[in-house]
TrEMBL record:
Required cofactor names: Mg(2+)
Entry similarity comment: Belongs to the FPP/GGPP synthase family.
SUPFAM superfamilies on file: Terpenoid synthases
GO MF entry, a single one: geranylgeranyl diphosphate synthase activity
Keywords: Magnesium, Metal-binding, Transferase
Protein name, entry field: Geranylgeranyl diphosphate synthase type I
Pfam entry (one): polyprenyl_synt
Stored Gene3D superfamilies: Farnesyl Diphosphate Synthase
Alphabetical list of InterPro entries matching this protein: Isoprenoid_synthase_dom_sf, Polyprenyl_synt, Polyprenyl_synt_CS
Enzyme class label: transferase
Length: 368
């Protein structure tokens, strides 16, 4: 099967999604610039963040549309492409807020937005706290992207028949609410006691990854594509049943990469998730199955932003020795198999099914 980049290029999808994003951003630049001087720094940062994305969410939506009988040209196809652009704008909003909450320094090999605005404050020798300015600017930028995604989706759906438009709008709105609540659940997990009941910890970590990432990364885009093709509720539910386990596997792969990924590929420092203290299934399984030394190491050092590369290497070794990595890999395989089985059983156009299967594999087996 072709690589993910090739699949996203198929039927000119990446080009068309990028063109839709460029059109929306052009209008946004004019609107923002007219508001007052100095404001185009916001849209410059949005453009930077949107560059180079995988466009997997847009691709899942589009190829679900095609797999459910949607045409490769026409008004409905144009609407699906624009909904794909809205999904990319929503991801940008989620990443901006996530980076602030995690105090991340880099994203895709570049400084995160709050660090960019913090550095701008320092360089201009403005008054007040540079860090606070950067944080506030990034939050507002995330809000701007959230507004943009809803505007793009609404404009796209206005061109469709009312029943399809209404169903897609309801699903899109539910997706955005889920992610916001998922972000809160993530904060709650970070704040609540951890390590006393590893099985409960793992279930809480999985609840977070489903709400915060799995649904909007795979399940909801697949369901949106089906709705936009006019699929029956049974077929929409069937593609959703494939999407949720695939979305879980996608996020679990992200969690592994956050600890073991190559910085040259991921664009983030090695072991960044350990410094940020992310409480994931990987960490829950380390605490559940590691020896006393491993548990002490994790309890003491998880969330320490001063961890050296040697500290990270020591923690990694303990995580591997606990069997947590092998266990999460097995869980990824099981979830991916369940998702693939559901795709195979769903009532889909053969070509669309083939591309969706390729996209699913690319989402689960990746290095960034």
């Amino acid at each position: 099967m072709s690589a993910a980049s090739d699949l996203v290029e198929t039927e000119n999808l990446r080009h068309d999604v990028d063109a839709a994003l460029e059109r929306h951003l052009a209008g946004l630049v004019d609107e923002v610039a007219a508001t007052g001087p100095g404001t185009t720094a916001m849209t410059d940062q949005v453009s930077s963040l949107l560059e180079g994305g995988k466009r997997l969410r847009a691709a899942f939506c589009y190829w679900s549309f095609r797999a459910h009988g949607g045409a490769s040209h026409g008004a409905a196809r144009d609407a699906v492409v624009r909904v794909g652009a809205a999904l990319e704008l929503f991801q940008a909003a989620a990443l901006l807020h996530d980076d602030v909450m995690d105090a991340s320094d880099t994203r895709r090999g570049r400084p995160t937005a709050h660090r960019v605005f913090e550095a701008r404050h320092v360089a201009q020798r403005w008054t007040g706290e540079a860090e606070r300015f950067g944080t506030a600017a990034a939050i507002l930028l995330g809000d701007l992207c959230l507004v943009a995604c809803h505007r793009e989706a609404a404009s796209a759906l206005d061109a469709l028949d009312a029943p399809v438009s209404r169903a897609a709008r309801d699903l899109f709105d539910a997706m955005t609410s889920e992610v916001v609540v998922g972000q809160y659940l993530d904060m709650l997990v970070q704040a609540e006691p951890w390590g006393e009941d590893p099985a409960a910890d793992e279930e809480r970590a999985r609840l977070v990854l489903r709400a915060k990432s799995a649904r909007y990364s795979v399940e909801r885009p697949l369901m949106l594509g089906a709705v936009l093709a006019g699929a029956t509720s049974d077929r929409v539910d069937a593609i959703g049943a494939a999407g949720l386990p695939l979305g879980e596997a996608f996020q679990l792969r992200d969690d592994l990469l956050g600890v073991f990924g190559d910085p040259a590929v991921t664009g983030k420092p090695a072991g960044d998730d350990l410094r940020e203290g992310k409480r994931t299934v990987l960490i829950a399984r380390t605490l559940a199955h590691g020896d006393d030394d491993a548990r002490r190491l994790v309890t003491k050092h998880l969330g320490d932003p001063r961890l050296t590369d040697d500290d990270v290497a020591t923690l990694r070794a303990a995580i591997v020795a606990s069997g947590a990595v092998a266990g999460v890999e097995t869980l990824i395989d099981d979830l991916a198999a369940a998702g693939m089985s559901a795709l195979a059983a769903a009532d889909l156009d053969p070509r669309g099914r083939e591309v969706l299967q390729g996209l699913a594999r690319a989402a689960v087996v990746r290095a960034a």
